[in-house]
Amino acid sequence: MKLLIKNARIIGNHDFPTDILIEDSTIKKIGMDLKVSAEKILNAKGKLVTPGLIDVHVHLREPGFEYKETIATGTAAAARGGFTTICAMPNVNPAPDSVKKMQNIQRLISKSAKVKVKQYAPITEQLTSDRLTDQRALVNAGAFAFTNDGVGVQTAATMYLAMKEAAKNKVSIIAHTEDDSLLFDGGVMHEGKRNKELNLSGMSQLTESTQIARDVLLAEATGVHYHICHVSAKESVRVIRDAKKAGINVTAEVTPHHLLMSEEDILSDNSLFKMNPPLRSKADQEALLEGLLDGTIDMIATDHAPHSDEEKQGSMIGSPFGIIGSETAFPLLYTNLVKTRRVTLDQLVEWLTSKPAEIFNMDIGRLEVGAPADLACFDLQNEKVISKEMLHSKSSNTPFIGWKIYGDTYFTIVDGQVVYQEEN
Predict the structure, then answer these.
(1) What are the chain's domains?
(2) Where on this chain does Zn(2+) 1 bind (predicted)?
(3) Furthest CA-CA distance within the chain
(4) What's the mean pLDDT in 231-252?
(5) Is residue 24 among the annotated active site residues?
(6) 304 annotated ligand-binding residue
(7) β pairing state of 375-379 and 173-175
(8) 59 carries a ligand binding annotation
(9) Exposure winner among 104, 134, 168, 170, fewest CB in 10 A?
(10) Helices 206-222 and 234-245, packing angle to 10 deg
(11) Annotation-wise, does 176 bind a ligand?
(12) Quick one: angle between helices 206-222 and 156-169, nearest 10?
């Protein structure tokens, strides 16, 4: 089947309307006013068309926690946000720490996913043990990379052995860095000034940065590609910057919420602001953007973490960590970073497409002839307000409800098929 996109604005050719011809699952032609026939025509109406966005950090909750999200609803939310490839974390029940469990998740993905899903496997059995999983067998069963996201690997020897094995298997280790020995009193938000004002227990930035410092040296010793999840602290940025200068193969991501908010935005004990790592100080927030701009941090990932309304009502105490992000990431970043001229549109698109594709060796993230026909279209002109009603996720746990945005998704295409289109 041929699909012709008319009147697109594309990166690198902002000033002229461009047409894109897709045949089956591949981009066949790009040019002005293409004279070709096609079974389906989509008019982009001058809106921005980019490569499909890539999110290396999402939680789909299935199997085990389908009341929060399912593969079907989570991938629908991703499509709603312009994401065409997402990487799903393994903290589900049961965790895919064996070939049989990994094969089961792959079957669920094949049956229900609306976008491309790459599945992580755990570093250790059941995510919290010190027994390494069989990496080679799990890779053969479809594992994308290895992570214990949600918990830090507490023992240096365990991480070292996992990294040695991953280097041998030419796969990446992805780390949620958190030293449990530095967590005191069941912390629920950043240990700074606001937690004291709200009389809530704090979480020091040292829980994150000290484990990163440990791990980058282990990565240097083993030669593995080591990727750090959701960096939140200025000390972490400094450690990563120094590691890169030393030639260590380390990469990192930052979330939209850590770029756009700080502890100062938490005005009350509101569990919608409870996330791990927590929103930190204004100085940390500024260091994250600086790190993104100078290449210390490589990409943006959402850490889309759905929870039920019941779980996220009331106090931070006793509620789970995490907020959703798939559907709001691009417009929030465009509105608050690009329109305010803190970053360029080209930079934003790169952090959400070509950078993660390059780092994780994925043949996507390009808008060029011969590339896979994974595309997203965004409306940069019309203002909207984020509301629960606009969300396709099963959950609505986000503090961004009510924020005004530009850049909402107009349509999303995966392998030449329209998987989301704004209702007229």
Answers:
(1) 52-365 (3.20.20.140)
(2) 57, 59, 149, 303
(3) 67
(4) 98
(5) no
(6) no
(7) unpaired
(8) yes
(9) 170
(10) 10
(11) yes
(12) 40
